[in-house]
Each structure stands twice: as C-alpha cells, then as structure tokens.
Amino acid sequence: MSKQTYRVCFCFQRRFRLAVSEAPEDIKKLFEQYSENGIMTIDGLQRFLVEVQKEDKATREDAQKIIDSVKHFHRKGVNLEAFFKYLFGDINPPLASLGVHHDMSAPLSHYFIYTGHNSYLTGNQLSSECSDVPIINALKRGVRVIELDIWPNSTKDDVDVLHGGTLTTPVELIKCLRSIKEYAFVASEYPVVITLEDHLTPNLQAKVAEMVTQTFGEILFSPGPECFKEFPCPESLKRRIIISTKPPKEYLEAKEVKDKEDDSQRGKASDEEVWGNEVPDLKGSHVANYKNDFEEEDEEDTDDGDKSQHSLAPEYKHLIGILAGKPKGGLDAWLRVDPDKVTRLSMSEQKFEKAVVTHGKQIVRFTRQNVLRVYPKSTRFDSSNYNPLIGWMHGVQMVAFNMQGHGRSLWLMHGMFKANGGCGYVKKPDFLLNSKEVFDPKIKLPVKTTLKVTVYMGEGWYYDFHHTHFDAYSPPDFYARVGIAGVPADSVMKKTKILEDNWLPSWNEVFEFPLTVPELALLRIEVHEYDVSEKDDFGGQTCLPISELRNGIRAVPLYSRKGEKYNSVKLLMRFEFI
C-alpha cells in the first residue's frame, strides 16, 4: 500500500501517504565510506564490522555470512538496500551472544538470582486463582527461585499451595512440585531454589518431605554440614533442586481476610498507567522520616532457635539446603556476619527501604557471605513491584518479584537477567564482594564511562497493530523515551520529539548518559504514542544490561507490557562508549 484511508464520519475520509522504510542519512554516509561503486565488498564489510561495530575479531567469513543472510544477488558484496536490511535485521541484535560467560564457581551468595514471589498466583494477591501455570511460565523465562506458601487443605490431611488469609483458590502442592520438575531446566541448567513459607503441622511436614523426595529423587540437593558454612557454587549444582525454608514454629491459623483489608487502607494505592507507573526514584526518596522501627512481623518471623525445631519432622529438616530465619533482636542482630555459618534472611520491601538508610554498608557486608531476600510489601494487592535497583546496589541476591504482573519495575528485572546467557544467575560486581572496602551506594563516584545513544528510527507497528489501534482518525504520533536505571547518580530518562502521523518514525536524535557504576546500569527504551485528549498509548519497551551492550548500530526488538516480544516492532539505534 502507498496510501492509507481513515474514515472521520459517514461522508468524509482522510488519506495519508504510507512512508517506505529508508536508511537514515548516517547509514547512507557510512555505506558510502565503506563501499565502491554502490557495492560494499566482503573486505569493506569486514572493515565496517571492526571499525564501526567494534567487533575486533570479525573475519571475512563473518562478513560473507552477513552477505549470504540478506540473500542479495551480489554474491561478492551488498548494496545500500541489503546493507540496511542487515543492520535492521534479527542477525544484528543489541546484546552480545556470549552464552553463560560469568565465573559460576563462586558461592551462591556471589550472584544476583532471578527470584519470584508468590509464584503460584495467576493475578492479584487477594482473590486470584492459585495454579502451576505461572510457575511454569516463570521457569520458562529463566526464573530460578520459586516461592510456595504451603498450608493444610480443608480436611487437614493433605497440603495445598495458596496465599493464606485471602480468598485465593488453592492448588495442590504435588501438582506444583511435578510441574517444577518438568520445567525446571527448560531455560537454564543452573539450580532452582524452592523457598517454602511453611504453615504446617509436623505430620504434614513429614508428608511434604515424602512428596519432595519422591518427586525430585536424585536431582534433589542433599546438603552436607559444609553447606551451612559456605554456600556451594551454581556450577556444582547444575540441574539440582534446592529447598530453602526456616525450621518453622507450630502451625498458626491464618488471619481473616478482613484484617488485611483493614491494613490496606494504610497502603499505597496502585493506579498503574497502561504501561505501568514510573520506576520509583531512589535519589533521596528513602532518606527522610524513617525511624528504625522493625517491630512488625515479616513473612518469615523471628527464629526462636532450638525451641522452634522441637516439633519439626526430622525428615523435613534434612531437606533444607539453604537455612532461612532471623535471630532474636533488631536489625544489628539480623545483619551480624557469623564466620562459621551462612543463612538466608528475608525482609519486606518496606523494611528494607528503611534499613538501607541506617544500615546500608552493613547490608552490603552481610550479602557477601549470606543470602538476603527482599519481597514486595503486603499492600501490593495488585501484584505490582518495587524498584529492584535498591536491592541490587546493596548486594541483595534474591530481589523477589511478582512475575505475573507487569510494569516498568518488572521490565528492569527482565532486563537484568538477559545477562549471562539468560541462565538466571548474574555474578555480582567485584565492588560488592570486596572485603577491603565496603561499597556505599549513597556516595557519588566519578564517571567511569559515557554511553552515547543514537535513536535513528523505528518500524513494525503497522504489521503488529491494527491501523486504528493508536488513533481512529490518523496514523500514530510516536516518540521514544531512552534512559538509564542504575545507582541514583546514573538514573535518568530522556525523550525524543513527537513525530506526527507516521508509522515509520525517523527521529535521528542523540543522547549521552554519564555512568558512574555501569556494572549495575540498565538501558531503558520505551516507545509511546502521543494522545492529546487521553493518556499516551504504549508502543513497546525493552531493558538491556549495559554490561553486555554491543557497540555499533543495532536492531533493538521491542516487547509488550507483559514482556512478550513483538513480531515486527523494533528500533534502529547506535551505541558508543566514549
């Protein structure tokens, strides 16, 4: 089609010319620079790969593969059209295809781990169904930590998974365990941790022990005493299932739903826009008006030491590969490092935000050896999430998220775990593991590098959306937002101009982002459609780990709000570290 018609009323139509995808001027100039007589030869393309794309090891064979991939009739080279097709094609992604390349032989506490919260819920936290389907979906995405809340069933003779004290409908524990076994290693062969929030009597704990042992058999990790002095490494735990819970108290009856509903009046109202609320700013937002008040109970309450273990089924206790719990006392006691024992500590988002104000460096020190899990506050009934960077910049391994939700915070989570081959384990930067000097996220550091981003153009909406999806009377008015999520000093969002009535927006705008801690930085990219009378429409998003971003001109595929890749929508961008 060369023109597109929009009906304004019964007797009037508006007609718009459809633009044809054309290489931006910068691309044309580069083509001229590396070509002769309108053809870029194998040698010219190889030089382009080395000098512009910064692929230092690119060979003539690599150049020939590109020429073959665009199916151009010039066997010995490419013309401008074929060159542009390569640059904007799937063969030219923004992230390096390195597979698992981090050192996987360090203790588990040295890694950020892809972690789910209430992994069995299909929707909100109060009334949605419990199912194994969201568990399966999470595992397929590469999530490595699955949380199950286990309760006696209605007849007290079996075990269900549900969100206690709510109207969520239960699912049988055995169904969840079987699905975990089937899908655990579909996306990654590195270990899956099952965190159990236990509300069982000793006889049902024994039943769980039997279920777990029979379901997982030899792939179930059986810890030796050495595992409680230092965590084993992911490499040694490939294709293993690890159970993590605290030696629990006797079963406590669930509170009524009304108790939580009363508490909800004091919670944050969530009014996510179509693409999700903006990620909370960490620049001083958690510093003011916080007292050291840690009296309220967590999901995993204070450990009573040996007393809490008297009623524990011994076969259940032997399953625990990662011990969880809190010692008596306040935050200082919780974060005390025991050189002879490692543990997993859990803390709510709210408590953690308060803790980083007064105990930030202690948290970083604690997470060198021990595992810390931070989970969403109880008032997030809509299964929304918080800014994960507040956890990562303090060394938190298990930043637990509601994976069934959507929004900008979850996009950051997806982006972080695209790193290291998508295996679900990302090695923490050395500065978070340094025993000589404790990293302090509040201190502004000097700029290490600057990322220069050129947003050339976008395409694909015409094929992936109905022609009236964005505007009933005209083609869309797109703009892009580009920025950084990272430590407070690095975090920023910038915006292109709005291009009216164009399915093929060509912005050609350049942005620069100084980075003080590039190791923790994520590149945020969003496209929206401007609407005068209503909220702007969502047009795609992606988040990319800066640590694995490729230099050069790249085709950047965009994803839906739920994190599903569009068939055709992508941006042409250039990345340069200067």
Protein architecture, described:
The chain is an alpha/beta fold and 578 residues long. It has three domains: 77 residues, EF-hand (Recoverin, domain 1, Orthogonal Bundle); 259 residues, Phosphatidylinositol (PI) phosphodiesterase (TIM Barrel, Alpha-Beta Barrel); 133 residues, Immunoglobulin-like (Sandwich). Helix content is 22%, strand content 24%. It has 14 helices and 24 strands. Strand 14, helix 12 and strand 15 form a beta-alpha-beta unit. The longest helix has 21 residues. It starts with a strand and ends with a strand.
The major pleated sheet works out as: 6 strands, mixed
CATH superfamily of the largest domain: Phosphatidylinositol (PI) phosphodiesterase
Shape field: globular
Give me the CATH fold name of the largest domain: TIM Barrel
The overall pLDDT, averaged over residues, is: 85
The largest sheet has its strands arranged as: 9-8-7-10-11-12
Look at the structure and give the CATH class of the largest domain: Alpha Beta
Helical content (DSSP H or I, runs of 4+): 10-25%
Query: How many angstroms does the end-to-end distance come to?
Result: 42 Å
Question: What is the overall number of helices?
Answer: 14
Known CATH architecture of the largest domain = Alpha-Beta Barrel
Which percent band covers the strand fraction?
15-25%
